[in-house]
Write a sequence for this structure.
């Protein structure tokens, strides 16, 4: 379920006409819905049993501070993957004791920053990282709470580029090594080893692989406890998918969440542990759209290209993952209007800069506005300035109010980042 729908012939974000925002802020523009963010967070938090178990929103999905503050007010923590994300979470008002630090390669500087900030937990990915963390914390007279990310060797996810739980992937310590490393960690002076973590992929719509992974976590927990080691926390990662092709019917979302929660009770219910969760896409995906204007039309024998003012640098998912995004006209088409075949593409000189091929849309003209649906996760956060294009502004809607929560950058700011060396000055 989301809060983008047609009223009086116009697409609305909650109570505000999308066309009004486009007119005031310009296009392309990301628009997020507060009510949708809140709903998704609350449905998830309730299902997994927060606050006893904890939700660390995976902020790489959408890290705008207004989004973080909206979720933090509901009790969300943050799953971070860099010093920059930790800083951003703190700046948005998420307290350090609700921040988890994940990520495959953390630098000494990043680990030191995390320890100094007093974050809740570091998710260790390699034995060498464990040693580094222990040294850094010990030098500061501290013991940093940590868990070890285990690679359970099950593959899952909607696309090869977002599968992380197979032994062929770079993530986590190998399952066979986990017990030995955990036992070592328990005796290290700078870490307080509290448990295990796993995260096997993204866009997961079938729970079988997750269940297999959680069973392995259960076995490992029992084995470690059998060896006299304490396991108090299990961080179960994120990865639950959302339906991109039918975002107007989010029924699948809550259904999937309920089934997920039931599966966790089935697999891990008998263990006395605090569970942590790191959902990203599930919270933010359906809560955002990217609105673009049609700049040109280019008819071909079998299709017509609609060249829009958004490009792959603004929303890279179609180019990177062959991802599908529904495209809704901002002006509601007449109920029985005829559909035509269109290819929707951006202005960048790469064939990959194509959002949709052979898409059936109502007759669309230059100047019309289109909305890419389900663009709230891995949209703005993956954007770049390729082609010296300005980062897209972001708008947050809350009922009948809206605010620009990231203004469009300026050309002076962007071009001004460069410095000419003195031999060219
Ligand atoms: C990316 C990531 C997540 C979030 O994944 P979603 O598919 O957006 O839920 C959670 N945990 C870790 C460690 C991640 O890398």
């Amino acid at each position: 379920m989301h809060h983008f729908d047609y009223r009086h012939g116009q697409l609305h974000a909650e109570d505000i006409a999308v066309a009004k925002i486009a007119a005031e802020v310009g296009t392309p523009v990301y628009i997020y819905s507060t009510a949708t963010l809140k709903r998704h967070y609350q449905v998830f938090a309730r299902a997994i049993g927060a606050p006893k178990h904890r939700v660390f929103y995976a902020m790489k999905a959408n890290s705008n501070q207004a989004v973080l503050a909206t979720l933090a007010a509901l009790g969300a923590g943050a799953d971070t993957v860099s010093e920059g994300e930790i800083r951003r979470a703190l700046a948005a008002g998420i307290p350090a004791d609700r921040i988890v630090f994940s990520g495959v390669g953390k630098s000494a500087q990043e680990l030191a920053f995390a320890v100094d900030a007093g974050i809740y937990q570091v998710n260790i990915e390699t034995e060498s990282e464990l040693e580094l963390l222990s040294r850094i914390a010990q030098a500061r007279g501290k013991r940093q709470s940590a868990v070890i990310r285990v690679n359970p060797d099950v593959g899952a996810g909607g696309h090869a580029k977002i599968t992380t739980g197979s032994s062929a992937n770079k993530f986590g310590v190998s399952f066979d090594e986990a017990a030995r490393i955990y036992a070592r960690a328990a005796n290290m002076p700078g870490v307080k080893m509290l448990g295990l973590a796993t995260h096997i992929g993204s866009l997961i719509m079938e729970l079988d692989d997750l269940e297999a992974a959680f069973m392995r976590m259960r076995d490992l927990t029992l084995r470690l406890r059998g060896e006299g080691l304490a396991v108090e926390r299990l961080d179960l990662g994120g990865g639950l998918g959302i339906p991109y092709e039918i975002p107007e019917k989010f029924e699948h979302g809550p259904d999937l969440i309920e089934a997920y929660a039931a599966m966790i009770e089935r697999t891990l219910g008998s263990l006395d542990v605090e569970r942590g969760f790191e959902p990203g896409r599930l919270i933010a995906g359906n809560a955002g759209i990217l609105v673009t204007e049609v700049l040109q039309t280019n008819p071909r024998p079998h299709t017509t290209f609609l060249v829009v003012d958004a490009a792959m640098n603004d929303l890279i998912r179609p180019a990177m993952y062959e991802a599908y995004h529904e495209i809704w006209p901002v002006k509601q088409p007449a109920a029985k209007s005829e559909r035509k075949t269109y290819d929707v593409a951006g202005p960048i000189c790469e064939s990959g800069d194509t959002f949709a091929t052979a898409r059936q849309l109502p007759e669309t003209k230059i100047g019309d506005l289109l909305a890419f649906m389900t663009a709230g996760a891995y949209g703005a956060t993956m954007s770049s300035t390729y082609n010296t294009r300005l980062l897209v502004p972001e708008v947050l809607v809350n009922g009948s109010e809206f605010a620009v929560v990231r203004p469009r950058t300026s050309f002076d700011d962007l071009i001004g980042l460069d410095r000419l060396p003195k031999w060219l000055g």
Residues 313 and 384 are 5 Å apart (CA to CA). The mean pLDDT is 94.
